[in-house]
Amino acid sequence: MNDKELINLQRYIGKRSKGESDSDVISHIVKLNSSHEITQDEWGKLLFIACANCDITILEYILSKLMTLNNPNDYIKHTLGFRNVAVGYEEKQVMVIKRLFSYVLPQERNQVLNDALVQAVWFGEYESVKYLLDQGADLSYQSNGRSMIELAQNAVIKFNDHRVEKLILLNG
After folding, report:
1. pLDDT tens digits, one per residue of 2-37
2. What is the four-CA torsion angle of 123, 11, 27, 36, rounded to 10 degrees?
3. From CA 52, how far away is CA 49, in angstroms rounded?
4. 172, 58, 78: which is closest to 123 by C-alpha?
5. Rounded CA separation 167/162 (Å)
6. Between 85 and 151, whose confidence is greater?
7. What is the DSSP string of the chain?
8. How far is the C-alpha of 119 from the C-alpha of 93, rounded, in Å?
9. Quick one: residue 54, left, alpha or beta (phi over 0 = left, psi -120 to 50 = alpha)?
10. In 3D, which of 46, 58, 60, 59 has the Cα closest to residue 22?
11. How many CB atoms are located within 10 Å of the residue 12 CB?
């Protein structure tokens, strides 16, 4: 698959037409794969799109095509790097993060939890913050010298969302 075809497929997955189901998207991917075999590197690039959209069915399909996932931290941070207000999005985001954590090595777990917490707090992803804290993320962890409560101000300012700030104050 050339770069243009990959970009077009990423766009298709990311901005599918209204009414297209996960099955329709997967069928399209299967069709393209049969004519232009998708490489492991390309599957990894497609996974970023499924993470960003929190398309769990498509994510599972792509994961089934990957022989290994060497950088789950990158995918977890990417999942948390977008703010979406669609109904049910926060719950789907937690499902994606939970699934990706199954690829995290035990010795990297605490660091990945804390890195993910930074992203989730910054974007005010309330359900993800709750999940990460339940998994052992550290509220005293700092990013570039900034505390979690300082990071939470981004969501307050940008999205007028105080939920994460209140959660941190309650648990801090």
Report:
1. 899 999 999 999 888 777 899 999 999 999 999 989
2. -130
3. 5
4. 78
5. 9
6. 151
7. --HHHHHHHHHHHHTPPTT--HHHHHHHHHHHHHHSPPPHHHHHHHHHHHHHHT-HHHHHHHHHH-S--S-HHHHHHHHTS----STTHHHHHHHHHHHHHTTS-GGGHHHHHHHHHHHHHHTT-HHHHHHHHHTT--TT--BTTB-HHHHHHHHHHHH---HHHHHHHHH-
8. 12
9. left
10. 58
11. 16
pTM of the model: 0.90
Query: One-letter amino acid identity for 101?
Result: F
CB 80 within 8 A of CB 99: no
Half-sphere exposure of 78 (CA within 13 A, CB side): 17
Q: What is the pLDDT of residues 84-115, one digit of tens each?
A: 777 688 999 999 999 999 999 999 999 999 99
- CA 149 to CA 42: how far, in whole Å? 38
